[in-house]
Amino acid sequence: MYKSFSMELAGRTLTVDVDRVAKQANGAALMHYGDTTVLSTATASEKPREGIDFFPLSVEYEEKMYAVGKIPGGFNKREGKASENAVLTCRVIDRPMRPLFPKDYRNDVTLDNLVLSVDPDCSPELTAMLGSAIATAISDIPFDGPTAATQVGLIDGELIFNPTSQQKLVSELALTVASTRTKVIMIEAGANEVPEDKMLEAIFEAHKLNQEIIQFIDKIVEECGKEKSEYESFSVPEEIVKALVDFIPVQEMEEAVFTDDKQVRDANISAMKDRVVEHFTEINEEWIPWVDDAVYQYQKKTVRKMILKDHKRPDGRAIDEIRPLAAEIDLIPRVHGSGMFTRGQTQICNICTLAPLSEAQKIDGLDETKDSKRYMHHYNFPSYSVGETRPSRGPGRREIGHGALAERALVPVLPSEAEFPYAIRTVSETFESNGSTSQASVCASSLSLMAAGVPIKRPVAGISCGLVTGETDDDYLVLTDIQGLEDFFGDMDFKVAGTEKGITAIQMDIKIHGLTNDIIKEAIARTKQARMYILDNVMNPVIDKPRDHVGEYAPKIIQLQIDPAKIGDVVGQRGKTINTIIERTDVKIDITDDGFVSICGLDAENMEKAAEMIRIINLDFEEGQIFKGEVVGIKEFGAFVEFAPGKEGMVHISQISNHRIKRVEDELTLGDKVTVVCLGKDKMGRISFSMKDVAKYQK
Question: What is the tens place of the pLDDT at every residue in 665-674?
Answer without folding.
Answer: 888 989 899 9
